[in-house]
Design brief:
50% of the residues lie in helices and 20% in strands. It is α+β, with helices and mostly antiparallel strands. Strands 5-6-2-1-8-9 form a six-stranded mixed beta sheet. It has a four-stranded antiparallel beta sheet with strand order 4-3-7-10. Strand 5 and strand 6 form a beta hairpin.
Length: 343
């Protein structure tokens, strides 16, 4: 029960995010932000003491924070805020809509957008922005380490924020503790280097396939089913480590089958962003490369430790103890996601 209560409030895919649409029309910049506040964000000190979400809640502190933390400049000169408004969610669990309009001294040839919302919403927050102008567009992810983008508003050119989506992919896998637990459980009894390579390759190929299918809205599954199955995959592989002596021979197949479901989990970050299809494809490619880079970092750290442990006679007991802990956590996550958490 202690494990369940500890795990339940935390979701691997509930990092606070904002979806921004920035439209450039002549000298006017329209900045529309859809924001789903997490409980952590609502409790941030010196920021927004919003209480329970709802139409009667005072959202003026949030509007004030967005007005202070979002800055726009045209050709190096700050644009003036012309108007601002906020629309509360129609129901609990809905999104808050913030509208800002900026007036620039002239039609921008180079546009600069700076986002410091992390200072009030926390380091886990990020803004996924779709910037549009006559004849072009760009997608960019604002992160604590990538707070500013500068773009040239050329006619007939579509540019894409390559690095930002790559960084988002790395962040997602390294902070997605459920994916990391699954990888750990997979390689605990992964065998030799060749067996480990097959396991990691199978997982990579599988989640890349379903990530693409889901992000492009070709195949989608209910989020509750996806998240519960991801939790169950953690528990299953940990149970294999404990109770099956010859699990290594087919471990690559297990990695592939459950990797398909993990890909649907990864896609939740990119799906339904309202991006142009060509922009989504590019964002998907770079996000997936970031996921692979983050996964490689985790494996490079874990595998040498596991190889070192195999030198000792007590290594099977250590693997069993770790697998038992992972099994309990996976079961707790499954109960929470399948029966307790509302999606």
């Amino acid at each position: 029960m202690v494990l369940l209560l500890t795990v339940a409030p935390v979701g691997a895919h509930t990092v606070g995010k904002g979806l921004a649409t920035v439209t450039v029309t002549g000298q006017t910049i329209q900045y529309n932000l859809l924001l789903a506040l997490t409980p952590t964000a609502a409790q941030t000190p010196n920021a927004m003491q919003l209480g329970q979400p709802g139409p009667t809640t005072d959202y003026s502190p949030l509007l004030k924070a967005v007005r202070e933390k979002i800055r726009v400049a045209s050709d190096g000169r700050p644009c003036r805020e012309a108007s601002s408004s906020i629309t509360p969610p129609a129901r609990e669990g809905g999104t808050v809509a913030v509208q800002l309009q900026f007036a620039c001294a002239g039609k921008p040839a180079e546009l600069t957008i700076h986002d410091d919302l992390f200072d009030v919403l926390g380091a886990g927050y990020h803004t996924i922005a779709n910037i549009q102008w006559s004849g072009g567009s760009q997608q960019f992810v604002f992160l604590p380490g990538a707070r500013e983008t500068r773009l040239t508003l050329s006619e007939g050119v579509t540019t894409r924020g390559i690095g930002s989506f790559f960084l988002l992919g790395i962040e997602h896998i390294l902070t997605g503790y459920d994916h990391l637990l699954f990888l750990l459980a997979l390689i605990l009894r992964g065998g030799n280097i060749w067996s480990l390579l097959k396991i990691i390759t199978a997982f990579t190929v599988a989640h890349s396939i379903t990530l693409a299918l889901a992000a492009l809205n070709i195949v989608t599954l209910p989020e509750r089913l996806v998240e519960a199955t991801i939790a169950l995959s953690i528990a299953y592989v940990a149970a294999e480590n404990l109770f099956m002596r010859h699990s290594v021979s087919h471990r690559w197949a297990v990695a592939f089958v459950f990797g398909l479901m993990h890909g649907f989990g990864f896609s939740n970050v990119l799906r339904e962003l309202g991006l142009p299809k060509e922009g989504l494809v590019w964002a998907l490619l770079n996000f997936n490369l970031g996921v692979e880079a983050g996964q490689a970092i985790a494996v490079v750290v874990a595998v040498p430790v596991l190889m070192w442990l195999r030198r000792f006679r007590w290594e099977p007991r250590a693997v069993g103890a770790v697998s038992a802990v992972v099994l309990v956590v996976g079961l707790a996550l499954f109960v929470d996601r399948a029966f307790l958490t509302s999606v």
